[in-house]
Amino acid sequence: MSQASTSPTNDPQRKPSLFDALIPLLILIAMLSLSVYFYGADSSYGPNQIALLLCAGIAAMVGMKNGFTWNEMEGGMLHGIGLVFGAILILLAVGALIGSWILAGTVPSMIYYGVQILSPQWFYAASCVICAIVGLSIGSSWTTAGTLGVALMGIAGALGLDPAITAGAVISGAYFGDKMSPLSDTTNVAAAVTSNDLFLHIRHMLWTTIPAFGLALVIFAVIGLNTDTGHASASDIDLLLGALQEEFNISLISMLPLALLLFMAWKKIPAYPTLIIGSLVGCLIAIIFEPNATRQLAGGEGPLSLIKGAWHSLFDGYKSTSSNEAVASLLSKGGMSSMLNTIWLIISAMAFGGVMERAGFLERIVNWALAGVKTVGGLVTTTVLTCFGMNAAAGDQYMAIIIPGRMFREAFEDKGLHGLNLSRTLEDSGTITSVLIPWNTCGAYMSATLGIATFTYAPFALFNILCPLLAIAYGWLHFKQMPLGKQSTLQTAD
């Protein structure tokens, strides 16, 4: 495979015009809009993938017109896909984990206890806080949503609460914890790409993150306190709890896989082995403590049926046989197969993003956006919008952090601003808004894991909406925009 050895910005024959750079992006926007118009919430189950792959081909043709070879364009696509290979493995592992944890009784036990502990009026705010604490502890929004998030969605269903608001609360809390944790990969990337100290970067983010999270909590609390309709009756809840006990052996032993996973994440064991081990432990718990459910899933009897049932939960999830429709709906999910459509979407998005970067189109668009920036407020606003645009065009939050981080660095210095302002803005926009875009790796993951379409939960991902808005407001108000001269003071104080 041949890859471009010369940057398009350094080779006049390959340097794209703004029109070149915008052609595939504008066509993509038009096709995605048409996809949503035709297919609605089902647009991510094939139509969006077609649009992304076709536009990747269009971008490649424009790049070839500028002097690139097909091998170089293909190399860009493969490079983009390679960037998210780790995310794809995590997606498969999360699918396996959900299936095995339902079979093991872990998720049913979390739902059983959670329904009795969490008050419907405070559920949204409490879910946000719980996910924030766990996310902060382990530094992963994906792991938080794939474990506690799945259980909280089940509890919300049992209580008759709005699943879209619940997903928004889970995502808000998970991303707060991820953003503020020194264990988070995106937090480390944002600090590294701007050459800032990690803990100074986290400290500077407090100015936007804490107010955004506090305001989100207040709104979730107000929504919960004013939601009188849709709650399940006491008899409905009793029936659901009885159905859970009938299908599973509800006990604290079933929570062991969760405790082990959180411990491994806290010990900084990488996400993929942590999730795989958690899945296998779930299978072991299922074989020992849930033999009836395991044999039922296998459709047979005898010792080997236990292995077959546990194996089935890993690749195809759990299928509840409960006569209670609510329980059957809550627990029939999981398995690696449930993530295949999401992986298809991610591969398609990264093929498009990879060729756009290789052809120099993303860089050209960013340089054009910077051309008219004259003020600090304009610079911060442009950075936020560029990061959001990168999340949409490139399909991955790492590219939405790294590319603007590299390209806006000099612009912040020219305005006399410390690099901490840039790293904070990258997180307030690149990290946070990724989950609001259906074909972005994060949006696709959350939709698949929580079972709610991205555009459905997006209005309720309050923290993810408020953070970039606060960043823009701070820029125009010149509030907490650290000047370059503070660098030595900060280092001395630290």
Report on the structure:
The chain is mainly alpha-helical. Helix content is 74%, strand content 0%. It is built from 26 helices and no strands. The chain has helices at residues 18-39, 47-65, 70-83, 85-103, 106-117, 123-138, 141-159, 163-180, 185-193, 198-225, 234-247, 256-266, 271-289, 291-298, 303-316, 325-331, 340-358, 361-371, 376-394, 397-407, 409-414, 419-431, 441-450, 454-457, 462-477, 487-493.
Question: Could you give a short description of this structure?
Answer:
The protein is mostly helical. It has helices at residues 18-39, 47-65, 70-83, 85-103, 106-117, 123-138, 141-159, 163-180, 185-193, 198-225, 234-247, 256-266, 271-289, 291-298, 303-316, 325-331, 340-358, 361-371, 376-394, 397-407, 409-414, 419-431, 441-450, 454-457, 462-477, 487-493.
